[in-house]
Design brief:
mainly beta; four-stranded antiparallel β-sheet; three-stranded antiparallel β-sheet; 10 strands
Length: 111
């Protein structure tokens, strides 16, 4: 029997102080057991997996231009808002994205 779909509430975990990630910057944080990259796009915070899907490059060491993250190793690109790989860099695959919330000066991430 198929019943109504039950939505689980977000499980937000404290990740990083918002003031530590100014606009246009990124940082790597460990949230629970997961390495996550948190970036600030014009005052809005986004989070995706820290590790590039190509060869494991550290995304937070790359470049953030607008909503595009470029991996420092082989220049694969992702949309920080949803983790989608740029089709022009077809050597990378989509990566996991996580919901974020800013509360009491902290960025919280739902892993």
């Amino acid at each position: 029997m198929n019943g109504p779909r039950i939505r689980t509430p977000m499980t937000l975990q404290k990740a990083v102080q918002a003031s530590d990630v100014p606009p246009g910057k990124m940082t790597a944080v460990k949230v629970g057991t997961r390495e996550v990259m948190v970036g600030n796009v014009g005052g809005s915070f986004y989070a995706i997996d820290e590790i590039c899907t190509h060869e494991g490059g550290p995304l937070h060491e790359g470049i953030l231009e607008g909503s595009t993250v470029t991996c420092p190793w082989h220049e694969g690109q992702y949309n920080i808002q949803n983790g989608e790989a740029n089709p022009d860099t077809d050597w990378v695959r989509d990566t996991k994205s996580f919901k974020t919330q800013v509360k009491d000066g902290w960025v919280w991430v739902d892993v």
